[in-house]
Automatic annotation (TrEMBL):
Name the record gives this protein: Uncharacterized protein
Organism of derivation: Glycomyces sambucus
Keywords recorded for this protein, A-Z: Membrane, Transmembrane, Transmembrane helix
Bilayer-spanning residue ranges: 30-52, 64-86, 106-131, 138-155, 161-182
Length: 194
């Protein structure tokens, strides 16, 4: 049962993210996409934490480091989603939103600009850890590395077709990881010395 829930989490997070991109409004997330994105972020937590738990069993310091990066990535996802929700609710323009963030640089940096890059960084870290541990086959970790490049490229440029490609790639990779979880294939060897 737990592996079914973990696999569902690994699928649901990227699936909702992919759906949210269809609701972008003139290269902005907008209210609907932001609400869906918020729930996408929350939906993906359980499965992703399980992946890092499996890597912790392999090398504790790798799992602990990756877990911190992943949690920062989730914080960034929630923060940017909430920013979009509040921009939509209060009808705040992109310029006004950026000006408000600039007026509070410490808060903006701690909540938005520093955690924001943690999500693609967590994809890259997960790819490297899965390759190093040999817990996942090369197409999975290679796909994660490609996702780590495509995702920020799509979100920084707000290019919808790149966003759809990134979303599809992430969904495919996490579907493969979900399948590995369902089959019990992510059980690593006992922990090695750090």
């Amino acid at each position: 049962m737990n592996n079914t829930l973990r696999a569902a989490s690994l699928l649901l997070g990227p699936l909702l993210t992919a759906v949210a991109t269809f609701f972008w409004e003139d290269t902005r997330h907008g209210l609907t996409a932001s609400v869906i994105g918020l729930y996408a972020t929350v939906a993906g937590v359980y499965g992703t934490l399980y992946l890092w738990d499996r890597l912790t069993a392999w090398k504790p310091w790798v799992g602990a480091t990756g877990l911190v990066i992943a949690l920062l990535g989730f914080l960034g996802g929630v923060a940017f989603s909430l920013q979009g929700v509040f921009e939509g609710l209060f009808d705040v323009s992109k310029t006004a939103s950026l000006d408000a963030a600039a007026a509070h640089p410490a808060a903006a940096n701690l909540v938005l600009w520093l955690p924001g890059p943690a999500y693609p960084l967590s994809l890259a870290a997960l790819a490297i850890a899965l390759a190093w541990s040999r817990l996942a086959p090369w197409p999975v970790w290679t796909g994660l590395l490609c996702s780590a490049v495509c995702f920020p490229l799509s979100r920084i440029t707000r290019t919808e077709w790149i966003a759809h490609v990134a979303d599809l790639l992430i969904l495919a990779v996490f579907a493969a990881l979900a399948l590995l979880v369902l089959r019990g294939r992510l059980d690593p060897a006992p922990a090695t010395t750090p």
